Amino acid sequence: MSAWKFTPLDTMSPVTTTKFGAAAFERATATFMSVLAANPRDAHIGVAKVPDDRLDRLAAQYNPKKLTHASVEYVDLGAIGQEALKESAYLGHLRQVDAIIHVVRAFEDDSIPHVGTIDPLRDIKNVEFDLMVSDLGQIEKRMERVEKDLKKMRSADIEKEFELLKRAKAHLETERPLRELEMTPEDKKRFRGFMFLSEKPILYVLNISESTELGKDLENAVQKFKLGEVASKPNSGATAICGKVEAELSEMSDADAAEFLSSYGLTESGLTRLIRKSYELLGLISFFTIGEDECRAWTIPVNTRAAQAAGAIHSDLEKHFIRAETIRWDQLLEAGSEAAARAKGILRLEGKEYIVQDGDVLHIRHSG
Question: Taking Cα atoms as reference points, which of 362, 224, 223 lies closest to residue 306?
Answer without folding.
Answer: 362
